[in-house]
Amino acid sequence: MPRKKDIAVMDEVGIEVDGDMSDSDDGATPRRGNRRGGGGRGGAKGRGRGKKPASDDEDGEDEEDEEDEAPRGRRGGNRKRATKKRGGSDEDEEEDEAPKRKRGAAKKKKGKGQDSDEEEEEDSDAGRGRKGKKGGRKGKKDDEEEDDEDDGKGKKGKGKDKGKDKDEDDKKKKKKKDGSSSDSNSNDDDEEESMSEGEIARLREEVEEKKTLIANIRNKPWRMKRRLTHLKEAQAFVDKFEGALGKGKGKWARKWYAYKVMMTKKWIKFQRDFENFRTACIPWERKIKEVESHFGSSVASYFIFLRWMYGMNLVLFGFTFGLVVIPEVLMGLPYGSIPRKTVPRAEQETAQDYSVLMDFNGYCKYSVLFYGYYNDQRTIGLLKFRLPLAYLMVGIGTFGYSLMVVIRTMAKNADVGGGDGEEGEFTFAWKMFTSWDYLIGNAETADNKYASITTSFKESIVDEQENQKDENIHLRRFLRVLANFMIICSLGGSGYLIYFVVKRSQEFATRDDLSWYEKNEVEIIMSLLGLVCPPLFETIAELEDYHPRIALKWQLGRIFALFLGNLYTFLFALFDEVNTKLEEEQAIKNASIWAMKEYYANFSRLMNDSEATPPPMDPSDVIRGPCWETAVGIEFVKLTVSDIQVTYLTILIGDFARAVIVRFLNYCWCWDLEAVYPSYGEFDISGNVLGLVFNQGMIWMGAFYAPGLVLINVLRLLSSMYYQCWAVMCTNVPHERVFKASKSNNFYMGLLLLILFLSLLPVVYTIMTLPPSFDCGPFSGKAKMFDVIMETIDLDLPAFMGTLFSYAANPGLIIPAVLLMVLAIYYLNSVSEAYKNSNNELKKKMQMARDEEKNRRNNTDSTNQVMKDLEDLLPNRSLAPPPEEPEPEPEPEVKPTKTKPGKGVKLEMDVTLASANPNARGPGGRPPGPRGPGPGGPGGPGGPGAGPGRGRGRPPPR
Amino acid sequence: MLHGRYRELAPHLVPLDYTNNPDIRVPLTLIITMPELKENPFRDRIVETFSEDGHGNLTFNDFVDMFSVLCETSPRELKTIYAFKIYDFNRDNFICKEDLEKTLNKLTKGELTPEEVTLVCDKAIEEADLDGDNKLSFADFENMISKAPDFLR
Predict the structure, then answer these.
(1) By the CB < 8 Å criterion, does A50 face chain B?
(2) Which region, left, alpha or beta, applies to residue A284 given φ > 0 means left and ψ of -120 to 50 means alpha?
(3) Is the Cα torsion angle A211, A216, A220, A222 positive or negative in sign?
């Protein structure tokens, strides 16, 4: 049905143009004809108003008759309209439709003319061999009847007015008659009522069609002039009727409707602008694109990852500072008020020294940056902000949020990966035809684009070569096994080395007479391993001869395994330290309690006063424990900072200095530095990604003990974005084999998730099992950190909540819950398995369909209509606007296929022109006199000028 | 407004008052200096495609035509048709290997080696050619483009 409708629309167009053309034959240019037509219609509006209440009635009936064959009838109606337009030119034709016409009450000459004209139309229709012939004829019958009645009535009214301008009147009448119903200023309320439902419906449909035509006019590959003609026609029609159909009657309703339409347009435009704005708001998009254009998507994927990390850390930063640090600064006790917020007397001398501050001791240690500074007051400030609770919640929430975000991103990426699974099909063709960005207007950007297109082609070529490569599979397998064996050996060796060194360092810890090397043995071995192993792995990986993308993954995985050893050694060392601190703390705690007791005992003995006032001691003099949490926090901060320093220095020396030396010493060196030995550095994707991932692990572990760490990290990521972008652009060269990053960088995410999990473990362990320090931090004085939650439940929530929680914590409830979760996981897993199967099945089917299509196309020698369209558009062929190139011979052989409505129409139209013109020419000798001075003032600006004039109004916004 | 742009290109050629003299043509060399086309590797082809005489001289109507097709709201089908014409360098209504090679060289500024160019062209034809005649007809092109995610132009 929709297709049919389409056709109907097209027919309409063709015919209307047709009508215009024949009009124009009377001596005016087509444009003038149009114009006059328009004018006539316009002018007629006024006159036609009170004309035919009756005719509307009967029209309506006709409509109802037609309803069963709506599309055809409509077409017929249109045809009728067209004929009427043409009517004036063919008056002197014979009238063989007499019997029918008798029905009309008062016959006039014009009417005859019209009918005869219609006959012609019918003839030409037949000649055209239109596919909807039958329908057309049927429609025509209705049409004729309707026409007659119409005419009759119209004439009644018109006879009074102006017999002469009949044709225009007719034209107008058709359009006007319904429009008039909405011309509310006249006296035809009854007319409105008399308009039957069917008619309204029909009109609505017609208007809709015209609208679709207007909307689709851009779709037609026609030359502008042809388009303009059609557009004008359709628009005039819609203008006439839209108001009539307006969702209500009357001027205001129409205005309101127009307003609504306008607002919709504006809204759409606004949405588009907003979309652009949002794209423009993505930070560093340009920078990354620039890098991508030179270094390929693999390097860009690192920067995208970096950007993603920055976003996540910003949120963490928001949580930590919004809920913990800033409340503490604003509402907590000030510095120096209590011991934990004061630098101890012994350290005050050096507390402001640069070296001390750089180690995050001194004033740094006793600041909001670290755990120890926070007080254990249950609520602070006027708002009764529960800081300890907030602290714990933020600590846990950090992990919760990170887990959620990482997993969500992974899921989304997996979706993307599934979405473009089709990609293999047209890679090269797409690259070839769609890669140029037509919005580029800047020379520099264009250069980048060229570079990036070249790069992407190279990427695809590498992929392709990879696919074609299949030499000795056995040798390759053997080499791969060998390589993996070697790497496992070296990993095991380095693991043992680390273990050995750590053992030895524990031994050393009991002795005093240590050399510098023996003191720092662990660190030295670690960094040596980190330095030696990655290149070693890379060399071994050469054996495997993987595609660079896969090789990168292996490399990442191996270095990750190596670094894990690093990380866990660090953690174990830390735990040792914590344990010793805990013991120490226990001693100090006992001592201080003992001292306190002493003091109170003395105090009450001397003063005979059992009132216990706190000892008059300066907060900096109080004996205090080592506060292991702060110590851990400091460790992490130090590690992070040194990591930043090392990374930046490596870039500065390893890349920048190297590049400078290679570049400038090359003039006076004995071999070619750029080509042979040092050359320029490549961007080390695996190293950088792992650096980022491990850094993030440090942040996650340390953030609980040092809220300031999050701030440092945000700054680090921000600066490294700019710094690394700069470094990569000016010191590095693209990889020898540029390769495309896999679209979903889920591998990075997987590493991140693993690190997240690994860093979650120690933190949760400390929160759950280790006792917090007795004199520092928000949890001081409690047996366990999570006691703060219990406290809140007990004190702040209603009693039944407490009982509820105690039930929930019951093993009897937890075990079933866990069971349920396991079952759910199992279920979901099997469901996803099933989906995967069906997915594969579908893919297979699609492949088959494609093959089939190929075969089918091979067999049918389709006379492709669109191709003809194309030919038509080729320069030097039929470029002139339709009316100016009448093709004398009618082309009955043209058979538009149903499948290509657009094409069908166009051909049809050509034919219409061709056939109509000779017809029109016969009577064309008639002077245009009677119709000339249409009521609308047909004069106006001359013909040819009108085209461009209107054209100017219509061009698409650019 | 568009006419203003048109006139800007060749003030000495295009009259302000357009009523009497509709047969103005602005030559190719002037059209491609427009900022929109200046950097486009296919600028010559685009202009040629839209010009009536096939030599890149645009009348105002052609000019409007070009803008309407290139503007971002114009429909995909239309763009497809014109894109096909643009890429069809030798105007034989097929995109054949030579066309592809030209396209590729324009896109990459000739930075690929001849072997790579040949490889890419072969692959492209192999991918998109459904009827096995070693060149892309419009149907092939349309089919291929309709599946392309980022055919926006």
Answers:
(1) no
(2) left
(3) positive
Give the separation between CA A491 and CA A537, rounded to whole angstroms. Answer: 10
Q: How far is A934 from A939, CA to CA, in rounded Å?
A: 9
Choose among A911, A694, A882: nearest CA to A24: A882
pLDDT number for residue B24: 65
DSSP sequence for A562-625:
HHHHHHHHHHHHHHHHHHHHHHHHHHHHHHHHHHHHHHHHHHHHHH-----PPP---GGGS---
Note the pLDDT tens digit of each residue in A610-636: 555 555 566 666 777 778 888 888 888
Q: What is the DSSP letter of B137?
A: -
Task: List, for residues A63-72, the tens digit of each pLDDT value.
Answer: 444 344 434 4
pLDDT at A15: 39
* Cβ-based neighbour number of residue A942 at 10 Å: 14
Q: What is the mean pLDDT of residues A167-188?
A: 40
The percentage of chain A sitting over the pLDDT mark of 90, rounded to a whole number, equals 8
- Looking at beta carbons, which pairs linking A790-795 to residues 24 or more positions away fall under 8 Å? A791/A378, A792/A386, A792/A389
Q: Where are the alpha helices (DSSP H) in A860-900?
A: 865-873
Distance from the Cα of A290 to chain B's closest Cα (Å) equals 16
Taking CA atoms, A256 is separated from A208, A215, A235, A262, A929, in Å, by: 19, 21, 19, 10, 41
Measured between CA atoms, the residue of chain B closest to residue A448 is B108
3-state secondary structure A896-944: CCCCCHHHHHHHHHHHHHHHHHHHHHCHHHCCCHHHCCCCCCCCCCCHH
Considering only CB atoms, which chain A residues are within 8 Å of B54?
A: 874-876
Res. A111: pLDDT tops 70? no
Residue B113 structure tokens = 């080696």
Looking at per-residue confidence, does A856 or A874 come out higher?
A: A856
Evaluate if residue A726 carries a pLDDT over 60: yes
Question: Which of A336-350, A511-525, A890-904 holds the top average pLDDT?
Answer: A336-350
Q: Could you tell me if B16 and B7 are in contact, meaning their C-beta atoms sit under 8 angstroms apart?
A: yes
Q: Say which residues have a Cβ less than 8 Å from residue A148's Cβ, sequence separation at least 6.
A: A100, A101, A103, A104, A111, A115
In this prediction, residues A155-178 reach a mean pLDDT of 40
Report how far apart the first and last C-alpha atoms of chain A are (Å, whole number). Answer: 36
In the stretch 183-242 of chain A, residues with CB closer than 8 A to chain B read 216, 218-221, 223-225
Q: Percentage helix, strand, coil, to 5, in chain B?
A: 55, 5, 40
Query: What's the complex ipTM?
Result: 0.73
Return all residues near A265 (Cβ < 8 A) that are at least 6 apart: none
Q: What gap in Å lies between CA A680 and CA A662, rounded to an integer?
A: 7
In angstroms, the Cα distances linking A715 to A355, A685, A723 are: 22, 21, 12
| Cα torsion angle, A698, A703, A708, A714, sign | positive
Name the token pair of A579. Answer: 């344990």
Confidence bin at A81 (pLDDT 50/70/90): very low
Res A831 pLDDT > 90: yes
Q: A425 in contact with B at a CB cutoff of 8 Å?
A: yes
Pure H helices in A129-250? 133-161, 166-182, 189-194, 197-216, 224-245
Rounded Cα distance, A150 and A112, in Å:
13
Interchain contact, B83 vs A944, CB within 8 Å: no
Q: What is the pTM of this model?
A: 0.60
Q: Is A745 exposed, middle or buried (0-12, 13-18, 19+ CB in 10 A)?
A: buried
Beta bridge partners, A681, equal A732
CA distance A781 to A801: 25
CATH numbers and ranges of domains, chain B: 2-70 (1.10.238.10), 76-147 (1.10.238.10)
Instruction: Verify whether the Cβ–Cβ distance B22 to A948 is below 8 Å.
Output: yes
